[in-house]
């Protein structure tokens, strides 16, 4: 057998052809970002890398390579025992490490000697990251977007989900970012990905979308929590046609209380998050909201947040940043129910044909 070496761009385009994509880097490197669908078979774990690196610096490179080789061999043996025993002869893995060097090469050599058809990403993750950044602008600009606009609480994200269920193409940036794109939008128990991982997630969705069909996306700001929307995608969204979603205010308040149920369950968390608004809304007003939260008056707080904070800011921002907003058709939801969202999604999909 002979190892097949693929340029990062080619490997990225052919990901679906491989039975398993294997990341041979350490646990922390994998956690920061990895190729879509990749599994982690570390040639060296985090602590082992530190150990080998220390020997390299404090003793000499030769001793470090000896220790490292033993650790890599032991780890490869464990991976083989755990993962390979049930693989058929036709199994085709794709391997990579940081730069396509010794870590993935060692594992690839063993798998190749067994008789599997093994492919390696030339340049490793570093080259893949470069390919993602190079391809994102073209992928972003080739798609026809329909930007779902509307103030906080009108159900934009819920509509995206309903549109997806109705067969439409959807790009859910908040879902990819694990954030609801506001100062209160961090979701407990769902840490945000780093920028590299977010870029990869966006790239992976964009490359699968059909440029002959519209892509529905929410009107986001440049940052969704701590991650930034790729610049080319942001520019394309801001120049695209919009549709304006409306929902009665009472329904908006009820919807937000449902979507942010963790604030209802943990008023202390809500109060601590409100601290972020002190600079914008003043200590006295934020203190009043916190006192109301502690009294259980969450509906009052949500309504006042919409009136005093979210709605004024959204109105100014959306008209300034999205050129298609002024001419956007209005789509009105009577209520926040799943049935109403499904009906509206079907109407919007039909209107786009």
Itemize the secondary structure elements and their pairings.
Blueprint lengths: L3 E3 L1 H6 L6 E4 L3 H6 L6 E2 L5 H13 L2 H24 L8 E4 L5 H13 L4 E3 L2 H18 L3 E5 L6 H10 L3 E3 L1 H5 L17 H12 L8 E4 L4 E2 L2 E2 L2 H8 L3 E5 L2 H11 L1 H5 L1 H8 L3 H4 L1 H12 L3 H24 L8 E3 L5 H14 L2
What is the structure about, briefly put?
This protein has helices at 8-13, 27-32, 46-58, 61-84, 102-114, 124-141, 156-165, 173-177, 195-206, 231-238, 249-259, 261-265, 267-274, 278-281, 283-294, 298-321, 338-351, and strands at 4-6, 20-23, 39-40, 93-96, 119-121, 145-149, 169-171, 215-218, 223-224, 227-228, 242-246, 330-332. It is of the alpha/beta class and 353 residues long.
Task: Give short descriptive properties of this protein.
alpha/beta, 353 residues, 5-stranded parallel β-sheet, 11% strand, Rossmann fold, Oxidized Rhodanese, domain 1
User: What's the order of the H and E elements?
Assistant: EHEHEHHEHEHEHEHHEEEHEHHHHHHEH
Sheet with most strands: 5 strands, parallel
CATH topology of the largest domain: Rossmann fold
Query: Rough shape?
Result: globular
SS strand fraction: 5-15%
CATH architecture of the largest domain: 3-Layer(aba) Sandwich
Radius of gyration: 25 Å
CATH class of the largest domain: Alpha Beta
Could you list the spans in which at least 5 consecutive residues all have pLDDT below 50? none
Task: Enumerate how many helices there are, as a single number.
Answer: 17
What spatial order of strands do you see in the largest sheet? 1-5-4-2-3
Helix/strand/pairing category: alpha/beta
Distance between the termini: 51 Å
Mean pLDDT: 95
